[in-house]
Design brief:
By secondary structure, the chain is of the alpha+beta class. The protein has helices at residues 13-18, 38-47, 78-87, 97-100, 102-119, 171-178, 234-253, 267-280, 313-318; strands at 24-27, 53-57, 69-72, 91-94, 125-133, 138-142, 147-154, 157-161, 197-201, 205-209, 215-219, 224-232, 293-297, 305-307. The chain has 2 domains: 13-232 and 289-312, Cupin (Jelly Rolls); 239-280.
Length: 319
């Protein structure tokens, strides 16, 4: 692996000032590590725990409101998984792949340390998955509670980022995600498309967007490889504390609090209250993040997807 002096190629004072409030694009040197070639990714999927591997399918160019369908690639080698993703309708993720394997973790630790210096904030925690997705595949409209960014390594993809307003993500819906009443996917209405800011990424480009920014993703006509990063800074932890506490107040006392626009001077008190509530009175909800497996990856099947009995597009249409 090539040792790099800097993982971020073109940071600036202007980007540091815009970070947190605006969409910030920059370039990186991840591809130079040699960890994201077909051969390296095949080795990664060979050794990555199956329990931390996601295999999904969706229709090409999926609309933002269409969620993916989970499947399995049991018995296939890492090279076969990469081949199936390239030629089929598939999306594969090595969940936490950047922190579970020493050669990737060394790179991840270096890039996050550098990013923390770039934004002028300590990174309290961070996790990252390695995504390998086929042509025209995508990710549905959703919101991540942590701060999020994408370092794109290969291919072309477009991230549509939407405003952080009640029209796109009501405060109650965001509270539900933080309280684990629901997953990160959010209701979609077609009129919301007009508010998207599209960000097209090519190899070696990255983007960070404001915390709680709703988004969906569509790939171009080629195999895509990306590193999806979720992380927390003191600022994001404080903001989530506000939404968490107000979510509990709304549900237990029937209050109608407003979280957006809470003065920063008050946020530490909310954060402390959220820690106390989680410890002393944890919420009863804890939604499972499992999805039923409906297909098996098959290099000879259409789209490399072999539907299991009782599953598939025809079954869903009939229902």
């Amino acid at each position: 692996m090539t040792q790099l002096n800097a993982m971020i190629a073109d940071w600036s004072a202007e980007k540091r000032a815009a970070y947190g409030d605006e969409i910030v694009r920059f370039r990186h040197r991840l591809e130079e590590t040699g960890l994201f070639t077909d051969e390296a990714l095949a080795k990664l999927f060979d050794k990555h725990p199956v329990a931390h591997r996601d295999i999904c399918t969706m229709t090409p160019n999926p609309p933002p409101g269409q969620t993916w369908i989970a499947g399995e690639a049991n018995g296939l080698s890492g090279a076969e998984i990469i081949e199936a993703v390239r030629k089929g309708h598939l999306w594969a993720s090595a969940r936490s792949g950047m922190v579970m394997h020493p050669e990737y973790k060394a790179v991840f630790d270096a890039m996050m340390a550098e990013f923390g210096r770039a934004i002028g904030q300590p990174i309290l925690s961070a996790n990252a998955s390695i995504l390998v997705s086929g042509p025209k595949m995508g990710i549905f409209f959703h919101v991540d509670p942590a701060e999020t960014m994408l370092w794109h390594v290969r291919g072309t993809k477009t991230i549509n980022i939407y405003p952080r307003t009640d029209d796109y993500i009501p405060e109650r819906a965001l509270e539900a995600i933080l309280l684990k009443e629901t997953l990160s996917d959010c209701p979609w209405r077609d009129e919301m498309a007009a508010g998207a800011t599209p960000v097209t990424l090519h190899a070696g480009e990255a983007v960070a967007w404001p915390q709680h920014g709703p988004h969906n993703v569509i790939n171009g006509d080629n195999l895509n490889v990306s590193v999806s990063i979720e992380y927390n800074t003191p600022a994001s932890a404080l903001l989530n504390g506000v939404f968490y506490v107000n979510g509990r107040l709304r549900r237990t006392l029937g209050l109608q609090p407003t979280s957006r626009g809470t003065p920063r001077a008050l946020q530490p008190a909310y954060w402390a209250a959220s820690k106390a509530l989680k410890l002393l009175a944890p919420p009863r909800h804890n939604v499972e993040k499992a999805h039923p497996r409906q297909f098996d990856v098959d290099l000879k099947a259409p789209g490399c997807v072999r539907w299991r009995e009782g599953c598939g597009p025809e079954v869903r249409q009939a229902a």
